[in-house]
Design goal:
The chain is mainly alpha-helical. It has one domain. It is about 40% helix and about 5% strand. The chain has 2 helices and 3 strands, in the order ααβββ. It has a 3-stranded mixed sheet with strand order 1-2-3, covered by helices on one side. A hairpin with a 5-residue loop joins strand 2 and strand 3. It is elongated and about 95 Å long. The N and C termini lie far apart (about 80 Å).
Length: about 150
């Protein structure tokens, strides 16, 4: 005689328990994943800041001027002139200072992440509410992220 195999079906109670277990696992895993993503984004921003600052210092050492300046004391540098100076091919260098100007990873607005606000007051500091991803002081060569007041401390 052959035995008939019983097919086990998932009951409503079993389904609720399964959903509860999956929800519990997801709630435990979510904070560390979110924290790791936030730390990665902050690390990217700091890396980009350091790279840009390094290129500004190198430009100043090579040319005696900050990027975008045409003469010492020129404080009328526009954001486009600043970025173009870092991206243009130099006569005494094989490569430009930067191939592409990096975007601030915290600015999601298309086009605003790689935009720069230029100021020419040596005492000015970014407040973090400027409508751009970056802040550059033409008078001092200081460069900051300006997506939030907290990030202006980096």
């Amino acid at each position: 005689m052959e035995k008939k195999e019983k097919k086990r079906k998932l009951t409503l109670c079993d389904g609720c328990i399964l959903v509860s277990i999956i929800t519990l696992i997801a709630s435990i895993a979510h904070p560390p994943i979110t924290q790791a993503m936030d730390e990665k984004r902050l690390s990217d921003m700091v890396d980009r800041l350091q790279r840009i600052r390094s290129e500004i210092r190198l430009y100043k050492a090579d040319n005696g001027l900050f990027p975008g300046q045409e003469q010492i004391g020129d404080l009328s540098v526009t954001p486009d002139e600043f970025v173009a100076a870092l991206k243009e091919q130099q006569t005494d260098r094989n490569v430009p200072y930067m191939e592409q100007f990096p975007a601030n990873p915290y600015v999601s607005d298309t086009g605003a992440g790689d935009s720069v606000v230029c100021v020419n007051d040596p005492d000015a500091r970014p407040c973090g509410t400027e409508p751009a991803g970056w802040w550059y002081n033409v008078a001092t060569g200081e460069f900051y992220a300006c997506d939030s007041a907290f990030h202006t401390n980096y």
